[in-house]
Every structure is written in C-alpha cells, then in structure tokens.
Amino acid sequence: FVLVLLSRIPFLGGGYGIEEDSWGIALAAFHSHSSGVYEPSRLPGHPGQEYLLSLLWGIGSYWFNFLSACFSALAAVYVAKILRQLKFKQYWIAALAFSFIPVFYISSTYTIDFVWTEAFVLMSLYALMNESFLISGIWIGLAITCRITSGAMFLPFLFLLWNAGDVKQTIRRMLLIALPAGLITVIFFLPIYW
After folding, report:
1. Exposed, middle or buried, 160 (CB in 10 Å: 0-12/13-18/19+)?
2. Which of 108, 169, 186, 193 has the fewest CB within 10 Å, making it most exposed?
3. How far is CA 80 from the centre of its chain?
4. Whole-number Å distance between alpha carbons of 166 and 57
5. How far is CA 102 from the centre of its chain?
6. SS3 state of residue 84
7. Cα separation, 168 vs 95, whole angstroms
8. Cβ pair 108, 74 in contact under 8 A
9. How far is 15 from 61, CA to CA, in rounded Å?
10. How far apart are CA 55 and CA 48, in angstroms?
11. pLDDT per position as a tens digit, 69-109
C-alpha cells in the first residue's frame, strides 16, 4: 500500500486532471456543496464519489487526487490478496505490476472514478472468494455507485458461484450479494432519479 501510494505523490499536484470527466466530477462536487442539492457530473452520475467529494469540498484538488491514489493503493493490496489466495507465488510482484499499468497509474493521480471503482470491485471479489457474500454485496454496491457499469460484475460472480455449489445454494448466495448491492445502488441513485 505504502509503496504504491508513495509512487503517486509526486504527481498529485496537477489540478483535477487532464480528462474533462474528472473536472466534471469536481464541478459537480462544488455545485452539490454550494447548493446542498446533489448534482451529477453527467448522467447517470458517480454518486458514491461525488457525494464524498461534495462533503470534502474546499480541501483542494491535491487532496481529491490523494484519495484516488489511496484507492489505487487499496486496489493493489487486493490484487495481491486475491493472487495469494489463488496460490500465485509472486503475488506481490504481480500486484505491483498491476499498479503500474499506465492507464491505471495515470488515473490514480487525478480526480476520476476509475480507480475508486476498481478498488471496490476487487474488494468485492476477495469477499466473494472468502464466502463473505453480504460484504461482497456491499463492496460491489459501492463500486456501482462510483461507476454504474460495475453491475456487469454480477455475471462473472454468478459463474464463480455456479461452479461452487448446487442451484439452490447459488441462488441463495447470489441473493446475499444482490440485496445489499441493490439497496446501496437505489439509495445512492435515488436523488438522480428524483
């Protein structure tokens, strides 16, 4: 975690980033903070990230970028944990390699939703692998609130569960993931719907 985080620190002072979406997230956080009414950066929005950033508005772009760097370090930790559980011998080297993939590295130095989402997806997968289905549902729900397309992870999760047991057990486990994920998603996206 520390090594990945330290590798990002020299690059966190570049404003909100080079992508217009990251500036849109910052602008939405500013408007939500100023008005007290949630405003998405673009539809369908990234309410998980945008709510938190609106609460923290005023701390500056460096600290928004620092949050992205922390999520990238967290994602690298969970890549290592997943690979270690899969008995991958050089799991820490593979996790470091993952953290330095150029698009991931660059995205972890500015205010954008990619690395937040990736961290939550990896945390959800790790919980699923450890049969903590409710926790897996919470993490995938938070991933969906950062990027709605994370909901597509239910398909590979279903395949993983299908191979692990019978039909009744698979349905029960999938419901244990889907219920908290669905509840979190509805709560976060309700203001956008309204």
Report:
1. middle
2. 193
3. 16
4. 48
5. 18
6. helix
7. 35
8. no
9. 5
10. 11
11. 999 999 999 999 999 999 999 999 999 999 999 999 999 99
Q: Give the pTM.
A: 0.92
| The token pair that represents 79 in the structure block | 């890549």
Q: How far apart are CA 184 and CA 138, in angstroms?
A: 7
Cα 1 from Cα 96, distance rounded (Å)? 10
Half-sphere exposure of 78 (CA within 13 A, CB side): 24
Q: Does the pLDDT at position 33 exceed 80?
A: yes
Could you tell me the two tokens for 82?
A: 């997943």
pLDDT tens, position by position, 112-159: 899 999 999 999 999 999 999 999 999 999 999 999 999 999 989 988
